[in-house]
Each structure stands twice: as structure tokens, then as C-alpha cells.
């Protein structure tokens, strides 16, 4: 993915994590500005290198069922 392929409102995640974040634009330093809710529901915001992000991938649900 090219560095600026994200559009405002896209769901993204850090390549090392599973938290869904929303891309909200470019920071003043030329990085991707993202926002997400922490476990307590408070909004968090930080900037990341574009190369550290990817489109959000919904976790696969297990097909294993307990009967």
C-alpha cells in the first residue's frame, strides 16, 4: 500500500496489533493521525508512520463450537 492510500474514516490497525483505529488525517509531521477507544471507552489519538499501518482486518471467528 502506498504511503497515502488511506482516506479519512478508513479503519486501520498497527501492523503489530489488533486494535481497530480510524484514520482521521495527516499530522503536522506528515504521519498518519489515528483515533480509537481505549478499554474504558475514552477516545485516544496518536500519529503513526504510514509504513506501520495497514487496513483493518476483522479477526477471524473460530469455527470450533462447544456442544
Brief descriptors of the model:
mainly beta, elongated, 67 residues, five-stranded antiparallel β-sheet, single chain
Short synopsis of the structure:
With 67 residues, this protein is an all-beta fold. The protein has strands at 11-14, 21-26, 32-37, 43-48, 53-55. It has a five-stranded antiparallel beta sheet, with no helix packed on it.
Biggest sheet layout:
5 strands, antiparallel
The whole-angstrom Rg is 14 Å
Structural class: mainly beta
How far is the N terminus from the C terminus?
42 Å
Low-pLDDT segments: none
Morphology call: elongated
Proportion of strand residues: 35-45%
Mean pLDDT: 89
Total strands: 5
Helix content: under 10%
Question: Widest sheet: strand order?
Answer: 4-3-2-1-5
Q: How many DSSP H or I helices? A: 0
Order of helices and strands: EEEEE
Amino acid at each position: 500500500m502506498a504511503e497515502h492510500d488511506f482516506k479519512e474514516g478508513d479503519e486501520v490497525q498497527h501492523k503489530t496489533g489488533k486494535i481497530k483505529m480510524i484514520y482521521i488525517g495527516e499530522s503536522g509531521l506528515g504521519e498518519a493521525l489515528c483515533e480509537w477507544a481505549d478499554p474504558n471507552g475514552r477516545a485516544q489519538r496518536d500519529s503513526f508512520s504510514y509504513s506501520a499501518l495497514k487496513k483493518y482486518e476483522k479477526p477471524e471467528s473460530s469455527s470450533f463450537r462447544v456442544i
